[in-house]
Design a protein that fits this description.
Elements: E1 11-15, H1 35-51, H2 58-69, H3 73-80, E2 84-90, E3 96-100, E4 106-108, E5 113-121, E6 130-132, H4 145-158, E7 170-174, E8 189-198, E9 202-211, E10 224-232, E11 235-239, E12 255-256, E13 262-263
Parallel strand pairs: 2-5, 4-10
Antiparallel strand pairs: 1-11, 2-3, 5-8, 6-9, 7-8, 9-10, 12-13
Helix pairs in contact: 1-2, 2-3
Length: about 280
């Protein structure tokens, strides 16, 4: 992006991005699977993370490319598994259970953070994998305090004996747009991307659950898991843009850090954007 050095912008921008989490917990089981389809899945996964503005570290990306070319399913899993946040398993009866992966549960306030999910599929089901959370609901930004106050009063009036609405600080969904797919492939092992948004900063616990349709949840609440997230606060950045004659002007910006992460995050941006 090229910006004329004489131009300045006056406004506020909230940066929201992702630092890809590091491994800290136990390792994940490496599953025997055909190398070619897994390599194709991971090539699309790498492209998706780049599209979302959260590329893998250079050494990881290089290793994945080499392992994909060699169709080395074991090496591909060994490279990716340390960055897996959640492991979703489907048994032969298509019952779904979820376990915590070794990646740190780090989110960025005010931005959809892509998280890596490993799917171990013993059922060969090809349905849509869905993610849910009781803490997920409407999240708001950029509205007047009076409007928020009225909304809160309306909710409390409608349901005076519950504070459930105040617990909704999250938005969750699976990233199923290109280059990823809307449904599971049926492969024994594949990787998927979840998108998680928090409108609050600090330590926040949320329960995440998965299913592939009605009645697919495993017994004993094993299809859900509580996760304590560390939500990094969004940082307001003041910019000032003026034209060569001193009059206010406008601009379009893309911010990238030294690791290649893009701000604001790409998951919810629509093209074409206004200049």
């Amino acid at each position: 992006m090229c910006i004329h050095k004489r131009k300045q912008f006056r406004g506020a921008l909230v940066l929201a991005g992702l630092v890809l989490p590091a491994a800290w917990a136990q390792s994940i089981e490496t599953v025997e699977v055909e190398g070619h389809p897994l390599a194709a899945n991971i090539k699309r996964l790498v492209e998706a993370f780049e599209y979302l503005g959260s590329p893998f570290p250079v050494d990881t990306a290089v290793g994945l490319k080499a392992a994909a070319n060699d169709r080395d399913a074991k090496k591909l899993q060994q490279l990716l598994d340390p960055q897996v946040l959640l492991v979703v398993s489907l048994n032969p009866e298509s019952r779904v259970k979820v376990a915590r992966g070794p990646a740190r549960a780090t989110l960025q306030q005010a931005g959809f953070t892509p998280v890596l999910i490993k799917v171990i599929n013993d059922s060969t089901v090809t349905e849509t994998l869905r993610i849910k959370s009781p803490q997920s609901g409407p999240v708001y930004a950029g509205v007047a305090a009076l409007s928020m106050s009225r909304q809160d009063q309306l909710q409390l009036k409608e349901n005076e004996n519950t504070h459930g609405d105040r617990d909704r600080f999250l938005a969750v969904e699976m990233f199923s747009s290109q280059p990823m797919t809307a449904r599971l492939s049926g492969l024994k092992v594949e990787y998927a991307i979840g998108l998680i948004y928090s409108n609050e900063a600090g330590q926040r616990e949320a329960t995440l659950s998965f299913d592939v349709g009605q009645g697919s949840q495993d017994l004993g609440f094993r299809s859900e898991i509580p996760v304590l997230f560390n939500v990094r606060p969004a940082i307001p950045v003041m910019l000032s843009i003026k034209d060569y004659d001193g009059r206010p002007s406008c601009g379009r910006f893309t911010f990238r850090d030294k690791t290649g992460h893009t701000y604001p995050p790409q998951a919810k941006r629509l093209a074409p954007e206004p200049a």
